[in-house]
Amino acid sequence: MSDNHLAFIFPAFSNDYNDHPGKNMPGFNGQFNEYLFQAAGLTDPQLAGFNFGDTTFPDDELRTQYVTYIYSCAVSKLLRKSGHSPAITAGYSMGIYAALFDSGSVTFETGLALIRIAYQTLHKSLNDKRLGMGTIIGLCRNDIQQLILQSSLRVEIANQNASHSFVVSGYRDDLQNLLEMATEEGALHTRDMSVNISYHSGFMKEGAMDFARQISNLEITAPETPMISLIDQIFLSNPEIIRKELMRNLYHPLNWLETMQVILEKKVSTFIECGPSTGLARNARFVDGIRFFPLSSMLS
Predict the structure, then answer these.
(1) Cα–Cα distance between 231 and 251 in angstroms, integer?
(2) CATH number of the domain that residue 236 is part of
């Protein structure tokens, strides 16, 4: 397989680690534990006791983001050690931080700092507002927008994964109403994502502005691997553009479907999901031309 046709894709945080793909990767445990030890000293001491052999996972949302980031960094490090260098990299939602690390734009420590600052500033901006996110599968964009408009719901479409697969974000009560209405409208599946922040929606703009101010002194360099924006599908070529992307990523809607289509137009058709789940690979079943390879096949 030519690396000219290869993309590394970094997923958002996940609570599902029961059958994580890294467990069969040679060297994964060592690389993961190396980064985990490093992160435990820099962020949350409770990370020091974490391992994937446990049947339970810490329910703290920030630690979940840390662990997903550490996992993704370990996977991409192993892939690069084994000789795989992608032509393009992309970070889905909060996967942007691992993508920046992999592309050489930030250090491992800076990625952890970005996660912490984003989480803390967005939580501070909530001011007791009850927000959340959900998924709707089986309706088109116009259907969902009509449901939002007809009931004046404080909810926005936050991301489009496929032609009939969407993430929605907004006030929790209105979000629950939308998910129920979508089911009545004929949606195949809806799900509350059980998060307290409405990422990728305008409700987070105030927090995103504060985040931008707080990261102004963090070192960010031009990426060594081309990295694509999920917002407008431009390539993030310099530190100024990356800083703007980091801010917008918190409050601006994304379009994963269009991003995959632009990557395909660049003659890149082989994707590796560098993370603890296979959600992006499952989404790709509905996009023609994309092939996701399992991690084990890349290192065996």
Answers:
(1) 10
(2) 3.40.366.10
